[in-house]
Design brief:
Elements lengths: L12 H14 L13 H14 L1 H11 L38 H4 L15
Length: about 120
Amino acid sequence: MFPVQRGNVRLSNLQTLNGTLYVAEHGCKWRGLPPRFGRWHTVYTRMNRWDTRGVLDRIFEHLQREQLVRVRLEVVGTDGTIVKVHPDGTGARKKTGRKRSESLGLDGPPRFIWVPRMHAPR
C-alpha cells in the first residue's frame, strides 16, 4: 500500500505513518512530534504528499477492510481568536449629520493643496 521509497531515505514509511497517527491522536502541533518518529518536517512533508495522492485513503480503507484498525472520524472546530473591531465595522448606525463649525472658513474648501515637486539635480 505504501509508495516505493527512492534514494537515500532515513525515515521508513512505517515511521511516517506512526508519526502521522501520533499527531492525529494527541492533537499536538507538528513541531511537538517526538524525535523517535523522525524530523517533524520530513514526516509532515511525506504525509502531505501521501494525502494529495490518495495514499492515506487507500491505507486506511485496507486496514479497515481487514478489521485491523477502526477509525472513527470526529471533527471539532473551535476558534479562540479575539479581534476587536472598530464601532464603524460592527454594523452600527453611522452619524450622517455634519456638525457645523462656528467659523465658516473651516467648513469651506481647503485653504491649501500640497503638490509634490521634483527638484532638478544639482
